[in-house]
């Protein structure tokens, strides 16, 4: 087995901690970075800048450089709050240009197997926002996974006593799909969530 310099081994070890990066990819990235010292400096500067400047918004908990974030400061409809698991989910919804309300980022989903409980998420802050009044609807846009569904059900139970309308994103067969190629679980959800024409 080839021994690399300790500093290179450390870099490979840190790169492997990133999602989807294995040993070979980490090594390939490390060697690529070493070929371009200026690129390595730029990456290091960008990482330090993100560490120093990006924080959760004090209103919605999305990652941003200013507080409140541009969405919260931008006069969005505060009567409707869309609840998402991560800032990445928020960005995906924003790209659709279909939602003009406010957001709330939970920073995860309930997952007892991974030791993530409701108290580990930004659920209390959501309940506090709704409890202050002025919110008419909470759209639950957690992922359609076991953890996301568990979180959605938990949120619905917590929110309904506050007198707010609680809705869930629709899910089912994607537009342009052939039913024969869609997995059975998705077809089942589509049938359960069918609507009148």
UniProtKB/TrEMBL annotation:
Output the superkingdom of the source species: Bacteria
Keywords carried by this UniProt record = DNA damage, DNA recombination, DNA repair, Metal-binding, Zinc, Zinc-finger
Question: Which SUPFAM superfamilies does this chain map to?
Answer: Recombination protein RecR (SSF111304)
Q: Where is the Toprim domain?
A: 79-174
Where are the zinc-finger regions (C4-type) in this chain? 57-72
The record's InterPro entries line, in alphabetical order, gives: DNA_Rcmb_RecR, Rcmb_RecR, Rcmb_RecR_Znf, TOPRIM_dom, TOPRIM_RecR
Instruction: Say which family it is in.
Output: Belongs to the RecR family.
PANTHER family named among the record's database cross-references: RECOMBINATION PROTEIN RECR
Give the protein's biological function: May play a role in DNA repair. It seems to be involved in an RecBC-independent recombinational process of DNA repair. It may act with RecF and RecO.
Protein name (database record): Recombination protein RecR
Q: Which organism is it from?
A: Trichlorobacter ammonificans
Origin organism lineage = Bacteria, Pseudomonadati, Thermodesulfobacteriota, Desulfuromonadia, Geobacterales
> Source gene?
recR
